[in-house]
Amino acid sequence: MTTAKRDTYTPETLLSVAVQVFNERGYDGTSMEHLSRAAGISKSSIYHHVAGKEELLRRAVSRALDGLFGILDEEDARVGRPVERLEYVVRRMVEVLIAELPYVTLLLRVRGNTDTERWALERRREFDHRVAELLKAAAADGDVREDIEVRLVTRLVFGMINSIVEWYRPDGRGMNEREVADAVAQLAFGGLREAGDGRG
Amino acid sequence: MTTAKRDTYTPETLLSVAVQVFNERGYDGTSMEHLSRAAGISKSSIYHHVAGKEELLRRAVSRALDGLFGILDEEDARVGRPVERLEYVVRRMVEVLIAELPYVTLLLRVRGNTDTERWALERRREFDHRVAELLKAAAADGDVREDIEVRLVTRLVFGMINSIVEWYRPDGRGMNEREVADAVAQLAFGGLREAGDGRG
DNA sequence: AGAGTAACCGAACGATCGGTCGGGACAAGG
DNA sequence: CCTTGTCCCGACCGATCGTTCGGTTACTCT
Q1: Nearest CA of chain A to the CA of B136: how many Å?
Q2: Which one of B3, B92, B110, B133 has the lowest number of neighbouring Cβ atoms within 10 Å?
Q3: Closest-approach residue (CA) in chain A for B180
């Protein structure tokens, strides 16, 4: 087995440390000195594994974007009634978001100060647009309410899903991915008010 | 009238410029040089009006927090059935969020690197807690669904509301505060699926 | 006109930024 | 043994960070 070499960093293991610090302090608020302390190696040693700070960001957001766009390639997201494809995508978004939590967290916080950040924002908009089209198709079928604008609904549902990165923490006794996905889908499609009760 | 003096900066007018730049580049990503260029005065002149960068942040998040906590003091948020008080608070949150958009935007992006940021995070948690108690009371009355955990629902609804800062832009022909508030309330309480149609 | 002061400026401060460089420690292969 | 290449280090680079300071401009008041 060739993988059992030295106990040292790879670009991937270093990335996992860096992303964690990025999420705690913010990308701009994180210095290479902070990263070196968190990783336990010197600042200059980091440059042995990656080209620089921005490459770490690029690797992180790429991983997040690959996970999200991968959803759209899955069969249940491509065939069937739009409303059911939509619900599948929503559930899978929650699952991917939790599975790749730190990477997606970082993706959702980029502001657009560098080329890498602007590229990430562009890809995000592209993904949002793909899901919005799905919602529009479901509305055309009459399967989702049309009294609220499609773009607005898309943004609000995305807001609900994306907010997961602000509070979900995978600490054993908490809820798992599936449970969160169920709750999000139920709330998004079914609403908050007690079913059959009406407006008190 | 003593207010018509010179055409110059006050701490308030300087703040409005600073908050805009903070939101574009992120607080950590904004230098005093950036602020001076945006304000059209020299870097050192800024210190004539405010003590420093962090005071600008503190003034901004204070304004946002005052707006939000003010909602809880309004009569419709204090008396009546919890579910109706909750819906009122949700609508008012949207309105305040839009009325004080740049300030609330900045508040929602604070990470906790400085004392000011940690104080802002603490106040935010306090506000969230107050609204969560309202939701809990509504659930006790049987007015909102109880199959989803109260804490989880609170967070998801907050996520939906707070996401407004990510896309709402007050450009004349867009929707106004009331319309957005209606959409949020309808989606949060009524759900996405077509009413009376069920899950076909 | 002259005094007082609010508003502003350029230059510079020490500290820290992201990144570079030459070299040392260490394991693998001969 | 010695070479080779990976991994890491301290020292240092120019640039930029938030902030300070001495001094100038421009307006108000008497």
Answers
A1: 13
A2: B3
A3: A152
Burial A152-162 (b: 16+ CB within 10 A, else e): bbbbbbbbbbb
Contacts of A109 in chain B (CB under 8 A): 109
Whether residues A43 and A110 share a domain: the answer is no
Measured from the Cβ of residue A104, the count of other Cβ atoms closer than 10 Å reads 24
Phi-psi region of A142 (alpha: psi -120 to 50; beta: other; left: phi over 0): left
Q: Tell me whether residue B198 is in a domain.
A: no
Q: Please answer whether residues A184 and A86 qualify as being in contact, where contact means their C-beta atoms are separated by less than 8 angstroms.
A: no
AA letter at A189: F
Q: Looking at the structure, do residues B27 and B84 belong to the same domain, yes or no?
A: no
Q: Which nucleotide does the CA of A48 lie closest to, via C1'?
A: D7
Are residues A112 and A171 located together in one domain of the fold? yes
Per-residue pLDDT of chain B (200 residues; tens, 9 = 90+): 334 455 899 999 999 999 999 999 999 999 999 999 999 999 999 999 999 999 999 999 999 999 999 999 999 999 999 999 999 999 999 999 999 999 999 999 999 999 999 999 999 999 999 999 999 999 999 888 888 888 888 899 999 999 999 999 988 777 888 899 998 988 888 765 554 333 32
Angle (CA) A149 B97 B185, round 5°:
45
Give buried/exposed letters for B62-89 (b at 16+ CB in 10 A, else e).
bbbbebbeebeeeeebeeeebbbbbbbb
DSSP-based three-state secondary structure for B162: helix
Which residues in chain A touch residue B111, judged by CB atoms under 8 angstroms apart? Answer: 24-26, 29
Q: Are residues B78 and B148 in the same domain?
A: yes
C-alpha–C-alpha distance, residues A111 and B29, integer Å: 9
Q: Which residues touch strand D (CB under 7 A)?
A: A 5-6, 8-10, 40-45, 48-49; B 5-6, 30-34, 43-44, 47, 51-54
Same domain, B44 and B85: no
| Strand C contact at CB of residue B49, distance < 7 A | yes
